[in-house]
Amino acid sequence: MARAAAGVAKKATLPASGASGLVAASARALKLVRLGLRGDADLVLHLPLRYEDETSVTPIDHAIGGDVVQVEGVVQDCEVQYRPRRQLVVQLADGSGELTLRFLNFYGSQIKQMAVGTRLRVRGELRSGFFGREMVHPKCHVVEEGAPLPDRLTPVYPAGEGLSQTLLRSLITRALKSYPLDDTLPDALRSRYRLMPFGAAVLALHFPQPDVNEAALAERSHPAWIRMKFDELLAQQLSLKRAQQARRERNAPPLRAGGPLVQHFLEQLPFALTGAQQRVWREISADLLARYPMQRLLQGDVGSGKTVVAALAALQAIDNGYQAALMAPTEILADQHFRKLSVWIEALGVPVVWLSGSMKRKARNESQARVESGQARLIIGTHALIQDAVVFENLGLSIVDEQHRFGVAQRLALRAKSDNAGQNQVPHQLMMSATPIPRTLAMTYYADLEVSTIDELPPGRTPVVTRLIDAGRRDEVIARVHAAVLEGRQVYWVCPLIEESEVLQLQTAVDTHAVLSAALPDLMVGLIHGRLPTAEKAEVMDAFTLGAVQVLVSTTVIEVGVDVPNASLMVIEHAERFGLSQLHQLRGRVGRGSAASACILLYQTPLSPTARQRLRTMRETTDGFEIARRDLELRGPGEFLGQRQSGMALLRFADLSSDAWLVDQARDAAVEMLRDHPQLADQHLQRWMGGREEFLKA
Ligand code: ADP
Ligand code: MG
Ligand 1 centroid vs 301 CA: distance in angstroms? Predict the structure, then answer.
């Protein structure tokens, strides 16, 4: 890092070519824009990555190898050497000792600049090697004897290619003079949270005082940093709350609770709702009553029973004369929902219709006609639901299962699906996810969603025991599979994820199926993968559900939603290749019945440190929230949320794992500002988002 910055600084000392000045200026503007620097406000908020201490000079013989130090001396010798490779070698002496400077890339002008007798101030990492003390590519400049040292730390800014620190420093200094550094926080808020004034904080970060607490500055715990992080989080909260307000100004059909279908459904259900299911159902049911669209996320660990709650919500819409749609990310999952829900719901006399991309054209047209005429009341399917050709009679509620697997655009498309005869209404939306969002993320990136959480599993489940086994012991595992089947259990055998090639992944599944069929000749071993025609997929799933197939070899297609309570053993091959949430989802396929269940993670050594961490986490906990939290830690929010959710402004300064406490304050402050100081809120958004704010979760 230091070296790169030094290189950039040197380039800038080259004389600028005057003739192409204009071209250079616009090229420079482009580079600035690439860094997000469009105007004064952006420059003011372009805060240092770190600081360099150039306030003192160390005598050469006091400097310790490995330290970054600044020394000053006179050039004794300067020559280009050609062996072992071409390099500029400069000898510097300061009376206390000698130091060798090496430059592997250099310009002719630099040779001149470092002529014998020149006084240089250099800063870099000191190495003590066989040939004495040396620095490679130090940052250096020519000084007069006795030239004053800076009295404060030197900021180092994030810079793109071709933008020197000197240039950024001068642009930022100029911006700080012309941009008004007024506070956008009302005094009362500022003193309540003990925050530094905005102007003072910005100046403290760009021009640290000589007596500043350097450690606090480096760790970003200095009050000036805290103020910046707070402001950034506040801007995010303000924009999300604005989005929420905008949603509340839209119309949705108010759906009354307690209709006959809901009543009958609850009466015929073979089990009682858990306390958690009852609670989330009350929350959802109340939301549906509103005249503005519900936007609620129902999260609950795998197997916590979200489907029943979704069915209840659908029935409340249907009770009120509206249609409901349920969209799932895969055909297998949509099909499972269809089978389960159509049994429950057609028993109440409500027509349920299936819609998927793999349907024959004629069947699909028929389904679409029933959707459009309104004969279909509950529609279940895949992405096919959001195609243009699908027109609803009056969609009142859309439900999206495993919402994180859909892009924002797809969810919006489903919401746009209701015109309701020109009443300008949008349907209520219920999103479901088994990948729980850690609280801090829920409060930041998902702040526009209401969240309901099922935090309790239906009774009678036994926790899944997870074991890590070296792939070399596969024979033992196969013996265990055999024993489990003899006890009347069923087994999933999941093939390794091969991200580079779907074909290869398929081949592995076919091979594994052959190997297991040969090793277990007395058992029925089935095979399922994404490329299988829909009808065959359904056949295999049926056979497994009925127990005719005892061992199911599969690719990751069974990751979500598949529900066969008698399956109590899961083997995952090359578990080290899977992500945490995927492993958790897969493991959730077992432990659904009353039998003791186990999950065997076969791994291949050597393991990378993060793979080891993931496997250890899987062995240590079955709690989906804990797993999500560790996943966030291992991957950071950007990756955790996935590129699917892109378009979302990630945070530059605040760090959700260490600054979670600030999120709470920023959220409360946002509510208060929108209510009492809307103009300041505008100014704040303008400063931090520059009108580029997107409605993060429209
Ligand atoms: P998920 O939240 O993973 O989507 P499901 O809705 O598929 O979970 O439910 C998992 C299993 O638990 C299903 O077989 C479902 O019928 C059953 N189930 C749901 N709620 C209850 C309950 N309250 N009591 C007993 N079993 C339940
Ligand atoms: Mg589910």
Answer: 11
Phi/psi region, residue 555 (left: phi>0; alpha: psi -120 to 50; beta: rest), is beta
SS3 95: coil
How far apart, in whole angstroms, are the C-alpha atoms of residue 101 and residue 3? 13
| Nearest by Cα to 622 from 416, 463, 450 | 463
Is-cis flag, bond preceding 84, omega within 30? yes
* pLDDT tens column, 640-689: 554 334 334 467 888 877 788 898 899 999 999 999 999 999 999 999 98
pTM beyond 0.70: no
- Ligand 1 near 591 CB (within 6 A): no
Given ligand 1 and candidates 271, 380, 456, which is best to mutate, with the most ligand atoms within 8 Å of its CB?
271
Does the beta carbon of 271 lie inside 6 Å of ligand 1?
yes
Q: Is the CB of 274 under 6 A from ligand 1?
A: yes
Q: Convert 665-698 into a string of H (helix), E (strand) and C (coil).
A: HHHHHHHHHHHHCHHHHHHHHHHHHCCCCCCCCC
**Strands (E) located in 364-422:** 378-381, 395-400
- Helices 2-12 and 165-178 cross at an angle (nearest 10°) of 80
Q: Measure the CA–CA gap between 65 and 136, rounded to whole angstroms.
A: 13
From CA 654, how far away is CA 233, in angstroms rounded?
Answer: 7
